[in-house]
Fold:
Amino acid sequence: MVEPVPGGGVVLLTKPTALTPADRAALRETAGWLGVALRLDRARADRDSAAARAEALTGDLAAARARLAEVRDLERRRLVAAITGVTGRGFADVRAAVADLRAVVDRAAAGELGSGESREEAAGRLGAALDELIERFRGLVRGVYPAMLPERGPRAALEELAATLPAPVRFRGGLVRQVGWEVESGLYHAVAAVLRLVADRCDGEPVHVDLADEDGELRARVTAAWPGGAAGMAAALADDADRIAVLGGGLECVDRAGGTVEVAIRLRRHVGAPPERPPAPGLRDAIDDLLRRGWQGAPDERARARWEAVAERLHAPPRLAVLAGPATAAVVAALTGAEVAPVDRPTWYAHGDGGATVDAHGTPVVLLPAEPLRGLSVLALPGAVDATRAAALPVEPRWSVDAVLSPGLPPWFRAALSASGHRVLVLDVLGVDHHEADPTGALAAVRDRLARGLLARADVVAARRALVDIEALPGADDLRWATERVRAAAHDLAELRVLDDIDRGAVPLGDDHPAAVRLLGAFGTDPRTRLGLPAHTPDDRLHAAARAEVDRWRALAARPGRSSALRDAAETLVRTCEGVVAATAAGAGPT
Structure:
């Protein structure tokens, strides 16, 4: 008789006489105990393996902490040197300008002012010195934490930096964005240090940067004219070489033909043990990660259901509510191009092959094979427009709309929508009806505003909605720092926020209003549309126009006496234009 052993193997029993039921039971019990012994042995082996791995990880942790302490000390020294340089030069210029102004004022009081002197000119020199000091501090902050780096990676951040340097920088190659933040940051700061070092001393000769991802390493090679040779370059980059070495990489300087020096930088893709999951590269992925962590930390099923609802809404199409009284069904029909029967209660319209159903809240859902409903859900809300409905539309889970179409909305309705904290696009367009010819052009206007103001930024609008909803969920306080990091890293969210502030009249732009809303993507997010240029504009002209806008809005942001709202809007516009500059740098050639 043969009896299999759980986990592998068999027990064979032979007997000269027939096997009895007791023999068979004993055989099965023996096989069972052998299986237990086998599992126990494997468990001991797994335990020993886990203990060895834990010991190795403990060593890795100690080494990582030592590396972190060393990197922290190197960064402290670098920042101290940078701040000392800024304060030393900047404050010296300011002190000299103050002394000059004080002397001019004293001479003017004594009636001894020279013919070529004036208090206004001295004050102007002081203002220029202060502006220069402020700009140096801004540059220092941008160098410590480049906003483009977490959003678009090292190459985009380096291109943004290169656009501000006095020498042309030409990039080739690229990097795969599936590495840790410390690796991308380490590579960026090392290459940035080389670029800043050589830009002022290469006599206008182009600097070449080659980026590659090879053999499990990120590699950068910077080639530029350098009068001091490889030895001088290595001495100037000693701290940066130490920082790269601590991260497990290397920085080497080699003399090349023609008086050029090549700086080769390499970093392993992962510092220490590779991560279990690559970092989320996009805004929606980052929010998915927040929602997953929040769901895992939720205390009960009810709390988890709330996290799941926010995750589901994040990936749902944008929602448009139509409030037009008795004409609501006619407006929906005009918008979708399909026949819609009058309704006497809230009803959803979504893309489908036809038929009807209900959603999780019991609201009817009509499926229509209408092209305008691809990527958009429409909610028909018959009845009166009142304060209760206005307050519920953005936040009520069964509605949570992103846009409202209603002719002649009262101001208090708009205020109620804004008070929710969510972004709700208001389409207050008169003349929308069911006539296919659209004689007033109102239907075309609605579709255009929907496309530009909502559908083109559907992912960003959904992300902003999710971030607002997360703040009210149980356990959100534990993710507050991570949530703020997502907000700070996503420039698209900053653009939406500033657009909303402008719509509310909170930003006193004056004559700059049309250019600001256009640059922020109110009329389309294509770079040429943002800059008001024709679609066929070549890259070099686009690049030049973007650089001019950077200078314009940077000057506005730095101008004394501006409100904090205007300064914040101008700084956001500077970053928008810098993104266009970086994106077009390769096609612009030397500048």
